[in-house]
Amino acid sequence: MDYRIEVEDLNVYFNEAQILKDVSLKIHKNTVTSLIGPSGCGKSTFIRTLNRMNDLIDGFKHDGTVLLDRKDIYDPKVDVVDLRKKIGMVFQKPNPFPKSIFDNVAYGLRVHGINENNAIKEKVEESLKAAALWDEVKDKLDMSAMGLSGGQQQRLCIARTIAVNPEVILMDEPASALDPISTTKIEDLVHKLKNDYTIIIVTHNMQQATRVSKYTAFFLNGEIVESGLTERLFVDPQDKRTEDYITGRFG
Amino acid sequence: MNRIISPKMAQTIMKGVLWASGIITVLILIVIIGYILIKGLPVVSLNFLFSDPIDSGRAGGIFPMIISSLYVTLIAIVVATPLGVGAAVYLSEYAGENTIVKLIRFGAETLASIPSIVFGLFGLAFFVIYLGFGWSVLSGGLILALMVLPTILQVSEVSLEAVPKSYREGSLAIGATKWQTIYRVVLPAGIPGITTGVILGLARAISEAAAILFAVGASLSIPISIFDPARPLSLHLYILATEGISLDNAYGTAAVLVILVLIITVVTNTLVERYSRKMMGR
Amino acid sequence: MTKYEEFLIEKGLFITAILSIIVILLIIGFIFKEGLPAMESYGFLNFIFGMDWSPSDGQYGVFTMIIGSIGITLLSLLFAVPLSLLCAIFLAEIAPKTMKRILKPVIETLAGIPSVVYGFFGLIILVPFMRVQFGGTGFSMLTASLILTVMILPTIISISEDALKSVPHEYKEASLALGATHWQTIKNVLFPAAIPGIITAIILGMGRAVGETLAVIMVAGNVTQIPNSIFDPVRALTSNIALEMGYATGLHYNALFATGIILFIMIIILLVIANYFHYKKKVVIGGGYL
Ligand SMILES: Nc1ncnc2c1ncn2[C@@H]1O[C@H](COP(=O)(O)OP(=O)(O)O)[C@@H](O)[C@H]1O
Ligand SMILES: [Mg+2]
Hints:
The complex is a heterotrimer of chains A (251), B (282) and C (290). Chain A is of the alpha/beta class. Chain A contains 10 helices and 10 strands. In chain A, α3 packs across α4, α3 packs parallel to α6 (150-163) and α4 (117-130) packs across α6. The two termini of chain A are 33 Å apart. Chain B folds into 2 domains: 7-43; 46-280, MetI-like fold. Chains B and C meet through α1, α3, α4, α5 and α6 of B and α1, α3, α4, α5 and α6 of C.
């Protein structure tokens, strides 16, 4: 089997509180994996562990292993900056920089040492096209990103992420702050991107999980109760708690 | 990717530079305070603190200056506290967000930024000459009151605004009037913050010399009445140093001022820490 | 409590509130009343652009002092801005808890030390040092700027730090998640987003430098001349007032108030510029915000 990310017995603590308990999950290459579960169950914590975003939080401790392409990402020799270049992230609330649309996408390129203007221009256009935003913004690339609608901002953030050629894209409830039409656009986009990227998407919208993902993992109170093919998990849950959750009996 | 230094190099270098800037700042303080204390503390004795200066400060102590400092500061605080707190109560409890309120805030900000020497000019023209208070503790104290007013006002306003709405609602709900609510509930809850503001004002008043340069005279004797001239510590230090009267006594006076500042910093920090802990319910 | 008493209390509080404005109007009134006669009789332009200040000969040109004040201020900004911005970034982004616990009170104490003490320190340490290093008397524009640098550090540091810390955390996360280094994030995202606050900080620091009197008097040399180099002595507007008010009479007395007018106008200009940036600065007390 071809796995991009393998998580084994991961425990995460913020100070004394244990947030994740013995989480194990394997993520297939170039597929979409959904993480579902009630809010506060540790989904965000989990994906932020994958690009070491939790390193920013005081009191973060973990044990267990997280492998990206068979290599431990928490190995002291690993450079966090390189890691995050390989694992992009889209946040729950669209968070474009207070810069122009163009500069938002160009930011990652410049940061990674691409200075050649034409190269940057090309890549910006390519990324905006890939994020299905190009047609809407091609005439106003110099406008501040803050002037875009929420849905456009989120697609801009996706464009910004794919501009630096990551292998994996983490999405933390990317559509939860958006209206239904924007949500559909994001979902279409996820569909399109899965050929080139390994995508992990957190959602508490179960329909969304069934629509976009091949695999699903169900989180509850910091543990993975059940994971597997999305179709199977929703049609034939093995665990009573999964069944309760997907049938809307709690959460 | 043809860069002179890689991002990672830049990161390492800048981290070093940032650490250095922090350490330099600490060193600056240590050097200044350390030097003043090392030179000044040997001069500071009970005798120095509690005796009169001899031969315009060439020898002897600084007792009249300590009294002068306390006296003008006391006047400043006694005058400015009710005014500053009153204004803060008005701004936080009565006023909406209208032009006059904006004007008041801008006024307080401007007052806080006016150079002390301009206060000095004003004090001379207004208190000393126009109102006829002469070179006196009163003139000096009133100038300082105006200078510390914005400090007390701004800090008090912030502390009053931090008092939870539920306190007010609880009191109003049992039929208390607005003023009763403010007086019995809001003000007591804001006291720690207001106290901090007053102490900060006190610090500013004790440090100030330029503003009272033309208002208190430079008398070497202990002021008794509010119309007596005086010579607060900071002014004394200025005169000793610039007129080359006595280096030792200047060191001693500077050390006393520095110690006062240190005490005030510790006290305000403790107050703020306790206050914010209380506000967070711990 | 009657309605009437409540009404009186509200009016009373209103009066305390507008007192700040009244005081400012009084200050403006009295400074201008005493200062304008000098400007009128000596000529407004002569007063501002006159190079000669010698009250005994009836000459009241303050141009050298305007240059002195501006020179000292700009030079001290030149030293203070880089150091304080680095220090603010250090505090907001890099410093571990223990270092913060040391640095915060240090900055507060620096802000609290009376200006006379700074002046005194400059007089006994810095002036002799400069004399030995660079020759001359040691009293100079540079010496004054160095002392002022230390005095405005706390202002610029604390406001800039606050501005940096109020940049939404999301920007930082977004940048780091793209694989930017921490320094790239600071330089390209946090710092630009904090610019309005940082400019406010610098302007307020400038205000403090322009307005400082005694510390400058004690080390600047106070010669009324346009300095040829930073090692020349200069006289600031503030110093001019403090040095001569003790014995000034007649037009001289008025001319010193007129000097105050110039100073007042400079500060108002700075305040207006600061207000233009709409940066709402927090009231910082001790280690925390209230
Ligand atoms: N920075 C933090 N410090 C302490 N606890 C945190 C922090 N972030 C999240 N938590 C806690 O971790 C748990 C899981 O949160 P999160 O991963 O955000 O859940 P989800 O994304 O599934 O809603 C929650 O109980 C939350 O309170
Ligand atoms: Mg979440």
